[in-house]
Design goal:
Blueprint (H helix, E strand, L loop, with lengths): L3 H7 L10 E5 L2 E6 L2 H10 L7 E4 L12
Antiparallel strand pairs: 1-2, 1-3
């Protein structure tokens, strides 16, 4: 079964975030940055109720990878 966040990833265009990490929660991008540590810091400072899904948007020539 897919999470709401992974379904959001599959159904939207994220070309503006190519090469960046994003944090998704409840069908919203709650943080984005060039490094995972920066995105985690942003999400922590936002004091979110739940842990978001962290995902790197690959550049056109890269392979897409999920971190769960």
């Amino acid at each position: 079964m897919s999470s709401v966040e992974s379904q959001f990833l599959e159904s939207n265009d994220f070309t503006e975030f190519e090469g960046e990490w994003i944090a998704i929660l409840d069908k919203k991008i709650v943080a984005h940055a060039k490094t995972l540590s920066e995105v985690v810091d942003q999400a922590t400072k936002a004091k979110l109720i739940r842990t978001p899904l962290f995902h790197r948007i690959p550049k056109k020539d890269e392979v897409d990878k999920f971190i769960l």
